Amino acid sequence: ANVTIQNGSTRIPDYMFQSCDGITGITIPETVTTIGQYTFYECTADISMTLPASLGWINTTAFWYCTCDIVFASGTTNIPRYVLYRSNIRHITIPVSITSLYKSSFESCNLYSITYEGTQEQWAAVTKESGWEGGLSDDCVIHCTDGDVTP
């Protein structure tokens, strides 16, 4: 089942989708600016979602042990520290608007692939803190519009 957060909502509450097992997709409107703690904790239903650029705060525990694929919407400029910590996220899509990645953005994540919506040259220009790749799987590949690169 696909779930749509009501347009006009500004926050996805703490624990809202904890341990969900029947949701395959979540539509989050641009009005949402906050995702609470443990919101997707232990969701194991292979959820797909796009996180809007309007998000100003994502609690560091929001995706703990969540199995999902995430698209960061165009206009997003950074992926907050620890936002995917302890998640089971296999794939993310990063827009060309991303300007920085932090050492802890993918901490304890074991990410398998990243789709970057820009070229290899644009990817090389993204500011990356030393150790940013710490949560990637050993065989993680970054797919750019003009070919693949490795971390």
Give a written overview of the molecule:
The longest helix has 6 residues, at 120-125. This protein has one helix at 120-125, and strands spanning 2-4, 11-12, 25-27, 34-35, 47-51, 57-58, 68-72, 78-79, 91-94, 100-101, 111-116, 127-128, 136-144, 147-149. The protein is 4% helix and 33% strand. The chain is globular, with a radius of gyration of 15 Å. The strands form three sheets. An eight-stranded mixed β-sheet has the order 1-3-5-7-9-11-13-14, with no helix packed on it. The chain has a three-stranded parallel β-sheet with strand order 2-4-6, with no helix packed on it. Strands 8-10-12 form a three-stranded parallel β-sheet, with no helix packed on it. By secondary structure, the protein is mainly beta.
Strand order in space, largest sheet? 1-3-5-7-9-11-13-14
Summarize model confidence as the mean pLDDT: 90
Structural class: mainly beta
Radius of gyration: 15 Å
SSE pattern, N- to C-terminal: EEEEEEEEEEEHEEE
Shape: globular
Subunit organisation of the chains = single chain
What fraction of the residues are assigned to beta strands by DSSP? 25-35%
Q: Between the first and last Cα atoms, what is the distance in angstroms?
A: 35 Å
State the helix count: 1
Q: Profile the largest sheet.
A: 8 strands, mixed
Helix proportion = under 10%
Low-confidence stretches: none
Q: Using DSSP, what is the number of strands?
A: 14
